[in-house]
Write a structure and sequence with these properties.
2 domains; single chain; mainly alpha
């Protein structure tokens, strides 16, 4: 992917909808069962066993089920959905949601799948404040007319591909001031703050 993986992923993060939104308080950055076991304090085996039993009684999260199934061949996906007790414990609505997402996933190209995986990794690396800023920028971007959204995409791709020490010059350039409204330039400023190595922006918030 051109421009470095993180920069490309950030574009995907902001300008594409999420593949499977979390439900019921599910967090993408939550630990796997193996990680949770390794992090358990010594002597906590009984507590851990109790938690494991309680977890077995809880309905599985559709997002987590989807992410596990999507890495399998379609034939194996169908076999598990037909026979796996954990999948059967999902509500009918969640089962249908997982099936739908798997159909969409299986139709994607390998490059599209890799972009989504990388976008999820980026989401995990962002701080809560950065995630909120990204969501705000996304909604502000979506409110723009289609022609302005396309112009913003082109400008952000250019910004993304610039060396970090040249991004400020681009944002302050006459070209950008003439082409974009003050509100659109604010969106570009926000996107710049989310790009790697752009934290030294002298116009940014010193508390961030």
């Amino acid at each position: 992917m051109c421009g470095g993986p993180i920069q490309v992923l950030l574009l995907s993060l902001i300008f594409l909808p999420s593949q499977m939104p979390a439900r019921g308080g599910e967090k993408q950055g939550s630990k796997s069962p193996d990680e949770a076991r390794s992090a358990a304090p010594p002597g906590g085996a009984k507590e851990e066993n109790g938690r494991a039993e309680r977890n077995q009684q809880k309905p599985p999260r559709p997002g987590a089920v989807f992410r596990r199934l999507r890495e399998l061949p379609p034939e194996e996906q169908r076999r598990i959905m037909a026979n796996n007790p954990q999948f059967q414990r999902l509500s009918p609505e969640d089962q249908q949601l997982v099936r739908q997402r798997l159909r969409e996933w299986n139709a994607k190209t390998p490059q599209e799948k890799e972009t989504i995986r990388d976008r999820e990794e980026i989401l995990q690396s962002l701080s809560p404040n950065q995630r909120q800023n990204a969501r705000t920028l996304f909604f502000e971007y979506r409110e723009l007319p289609p022609g302005r959204r396309q112009a913003m995409k082109v400008a952000f791709r250019h910004l993304r591909d610039l060396p970090p020490d040249q991004r400020r010059g681009f944002l302050d350039s006459q070209r950008v001031r003439e082409q974009f409204s003050p509100h659109e330039r604010e969106i570009l400023e926000g996107l710049n703050k989310l790009l790697p190595n752009s934290g030294s922006d002298p116009h940014g918030d010193p508390n961030e």
